[in-house]
Amino acid sequence: MTKLNAFILAFTLFLFVKTQGQELVKIQPEKPQANDLLTVTFNQKGSKIPDTVKELFINFTYSNFYEMPNRLPMQKVNGLWNVSFKLPFYSKYGSFTISDANKDFVQQPTDTSHYEFFVYKDGKLIEGNYLAKGYSLSLQNRKSATFEQQQQEWFKKELSIYPNNYESQLRILAYEMKKAKGQAKWDAREKALAVIEKKFRSNPTFGGNINSTTMGFLIIGENQKVDSIRQVVAKDFPKSDYAKEHNLGLFLRNKDEALVVDSLQKLLKNAKDEDKKSYSSAYNYLFRYYIKKKDKTNALAYYRNTIKGDTSPYRWRDYNNYVKFLEENSMLLDSAKKLNTYILANVAQYPTSVIRYFPETGYLIGFDEKRKENLKQVENELKAMQGILSYKLGEKSEALKWLSEVRTTLQSKELLLKVADVYKSLEDKAAATEMLGNAYKLTPFDNKVAVLLKESVLASGGTEADFKAKLAVLEKEWKASHFNSLKKIVLDKPFPDFQIVDMNKKPLTAADLKGKVVLIDLWATWCKPCIEFFPYLHVIYDKYKDDKDVMFVILNTASGNTFEDASTWVNQNKNFTFPFYFNEDKKLSAKLDVNTIPTTFLLDKNSKIRFKKVGNEGEKAMPQLDAMIEFLKQQK
Length: 636
Fold this sequence. Notes:
By secondary structure, the protein is an alpha+beta fold. The protein has 24 helices and 21 strands. Strand 1 (25-28) and strand 2 form a beta hairpin. Helix 3 packs antiparallel against helix 4, helix 9 (257-269) packs across helix 10 and helix 19 crosses helix 24 (621-633).
């Protein structure tokens, strides 16, 4: 068989398989528009998913649907599975797979593609669809060694319809810069810089355009220019709002507090009404300055300007921080209580997830799977603060009313400690001890809380033995609480084949993991949240480092890092003594379905993945990880 015939046969087989895969799934309408109701129908017969699976989901693998969940449950009607959802007004391309709850069975057209839809307007593909399709390949076909070349074809296709698409132009030129040598490399760079310059000059003082400009420099790898573009705006357009905010931000870094205060007062005295929004950081600086100086009159004057005018969803968090700041300093408590009351009355608007802003969409609040639960915690914290402020204002009966509402449900260590102080001042030692006990259950690794709890037990007439007995009860309670939660989220997936070496380049083997509970934490030297998580993770390591049944693998993913990068960082950070490793399998992240780091896995003694945690939850993660280890240690 000739190479040409072999290629034709292989391509025909690919088309057949893809067509068969697509027939199992129907997407309507065929050319959906933003705000349309999109329906996905799936015929389980003939698919990879056996009939024994009675619960199916579509999993968005790539989309810009920030306000929607990443997966949606499907319903079975007349033998066919379907789901309908409204496309957001800012919709573009989306891709998805269909699977059971644990993704043990995943249906997709081929092993290297996902189901997909493009978004139209009046029958024409809207700008950005093919660009997004190109981006999606890193998720759909990231095991392929040629996915970058495939991406380039989609970026070029985007330009064939929208020749001025900024990102596509830069992605193509960045790839040329990466592959070219000599003069061709420099020519591609000059073209890319010209594209960025044109974009910048199209609207140089508009924040969204400045963000696009800085993104352009990041795309072509010239990160050092990100700050310089802001300096250019400030220098060339000094009267723009952006320049005023930028220059003011730089000035506020001055450590000469007296000079800053004097200059800000002069600035605001002559400020025009249209400038006040640009000077919000100045009002905030002076407000905080006078609060710390206990100057009530000036603090109140700047406070009023600080809180008015903001209509963004960020304002609720800002208001909450102002309340906390005033309470901590015992200043303007009446104002603090009024503001806290206002937040509490509007708690339904409080954002509990990531807030994004795009010039073309405005503010978008990300979907929060646990919003109801998280919002309840926010409400509890606001009620606790209302009680604390009432007490400080001499309203004891009102304070007790508010605190009684959250006495058993408050989940904030900081507020629990403050509530304990209130009860202690009211000589309710039992309630104070109860609050400190609840704080300990949240943060059992915080020695300061343990000390306060001990002092409270002894002040109530207890003994050292009573304190130890109390601590033992609390240990059982917080672990039991976590164990009950863990039973609901335990996984059952084998850890894939791997190529991992330690910092001496000695290979890690499957036999090394066998019979141990293994914590694997994925990180990279450039990942700030990963590094910030290390001190919390190290506390857990210190507890188990001498336990022969527990193993830690702090694994550099090799994403954007070489072995030398990882080794250099480890040698420069000797304060972290847990065992570091380096990944030599480029496909490991794909095998583990990891898109974000830090990501932490807990493996049982049979090397099965039982738990997966994504992100840096700081102090909150410590009891969770500890409970996971203990949970798995108890398993046979």
